[in-house]
Amino acid sequence: MLIVGSGGSSRVDWICLLPDKSIQTIETRGLNPYFLSEKEIIKVLNSVKLFQEYSSIAKEIHFFGAGCNSPDKREIVSNALSVKFKQAFINVESDLLGGAFATCGNKPGLNCILGTGSNISYFDGEKLFEGSYGLGYILGDEGSGSFFGKKLITDFLYEKMPPELSKTFKIRYHTNKELVIEQLYKKPLPNYYLASHTDFLDNNLDHPYCIDIIKKGLSDYIQTHVCSYANHKELYCHFIGPIAFKFETILREVCKEYQIHVGKIIEKSAEDLFKYVREKEGF
Questions:
Q1: How many domains does the chain have?
Q2: Residue 35 is part of a domain; what is its CATH number?
């Protein structure tokens, strides 16, 4: 039995090859070890009925997730998975490597993450080279859900948002300064809270204000992340995540301005990644 999980800070998509060779997909909340402890991750795993049923016979678990880019953070997730799947081989890697396998396969390319957070890496067809990015929602995450959410909230609180949109925003989120401060500084997963506001952009995509915010945010991402690679105009640039997927048209326009060769733009890497791992491991 093979289980492959991939996801960002908000959610993880799991694809399971069951003993009878049928395939089942499930979704859980994100398992970013920067925000969840080993015990909290185990609690998430224990809430999945399928995992309860097959925990003792699973042969291999391959997990590619946000925050798993250092040995100590990978160990947190690996330990939690080992508690749940005691007989299985456990492999934990970063979502960047998973994205590279899903998009680039065995060819060189730039792998861009645009979800709750943002990141980038270069894949030479065999090895992943991470840049000095992925600084998180406070220092970085340009062009991400948390980045756009922060912009919307600050514009609303500073009364910079167009009046007609400000009224809609207030009705939609029932927010104010006190509530925002509480969510960001006193409650868990503040990055997820910020990113949850991006549906406002999607629902008001016909408004110039929203289009402008998206363009500027994606341009900021391209300038900061993609253009930092000297050979970025020679490589295919692949994008993964709900932000890239939702705003694909605008993203392509921005990439064209910077002469970026766009490869895949996919919302989730799970299916492509599962196919890659299954073939590689011989299941």
A1: 1
A2: 3.30.420.40
